[in-house]
Write a structure and sequence with these properties.
With 264 residues, the chain is α/β, with parallel strands linked by helices. It has six helices and eight strands, in the order αββαβαβαββαβαβ. It is globular, with a radius of gyration of 18 Å. The N and C termini lie close together (11 Å).
């Protein structure tokens, strides 16, 4: 299914006028682990997946509603996916443990993670959440940088469909992706220290400041290209009463426990 997944990603990218340049392909992930990238656009999974050759990625993140849901569902037919349903997310530690357990299995695709948790405008690298940096698995950093001369891929719209249409009618969206050398947590290194070290590796390569704050604490400025949303536009309000069904997600009503689903 790797061929179909890559083909789908490339066709999607072409439809948005995306021009991609990949660098340092010798550092491209070749085995299981966690692929960590700064979060630039709503379409980052498609962007990164289009360069797969020997192995693909396991897509993960928070499940969405609206127009994004069918894209997630179709993507789950082409590559393994792990989605956290925000309708029942009181305890994310269990989901994080499942991701680390999955990433430690030698036969799985590397899990693609955006540890900022927010789409940024590429002017800074937001704080990396430490939850997935405590395991003994390799980290494959990826640095994403956009060139805004012909179009801006940052999500400014309130919903996804107007954003997608704007991308499609832009002159072009130009993004550079660089694979950085594999990183591992040192002995007795705290997860937050390791998370900061990976964040600094990506921000240093991009020559962007490394923020000590997450997107919820980043401040606004007067120019739209120079702020990070305090409430990320990469989120929708899912139904509050049910989780979408799967082998690991049961229907609940106002559940007080985190529920997630895995598709492979």
């Amino acid at each position: 299914m790797l061929y179909f997944g890559v083909t789908f990603a490339r066709l999607f990218n072409v439809s948005t006028g995306l021009i991609l340049d990949f660098y340092n392909k010798e550092h491209r992930p070749k085995s299981s682990g966690l692929a960590m990238a700064n979060h630039l656009t709503a379409n980052d999974i498609m962007t990164i997946y289009s360069d797969c050759e020997e192995i693909g990625y396991t897509a993960t993140g928070q499940s969405h509603g609206g127009f994004i849901y069918p894209l997630e569902a179709f993507g789950g037919k082409l590559t393994p996916t792990l989605w956290l349903d925000r309708a029942c997310n009181k305890d994310r530690a269990s989901f994080q443990k499942q991701v680390l357990d999955y990433a430690s299995q030698p036969s799985t695709y590397p899990v693609l993670i955006f540890p900022e948790g927010f789409c940024s405008n590429n002017q800074t690298v937001l704080q990396f959440r430490k939850g997935l940096f405590g395991g003994d698995v390799p980290i494959y950093p990826l640095a994403l940088k956009q060139l805004t001369r012909f179009g801006d891929s940052f999500w400014l719209e309130d919903t996804y469909l107007p954003y997608l249409l704007r991308c499609m009618i832009s002159w072009a969206l130009v993004i550079e992706i660089t694979y950085l050398p594999e990183m591992r947590r040192e002995e007795n290194e705290a997860s937050e220290v390791f998370a900061k070290r990976v964040q600094n590796a990506i921000s240093s390569f991009l020559e962007r400041p490394s923020s000590p704050y997450d997107g919820g604490k980043s401040s606004h400025t007067s120019h739209p290209k120079q702020f990070i949303y305090s409430a990320t536009p990469c989120q929708f309000d899912p139904p509050q009463t049910t989780c979408r069904s799967s082998s690991l997600c049961r229907k609940v009503e106002k559940s007080d426990q985190s529920t997630f689903r895995i598709s492979d």
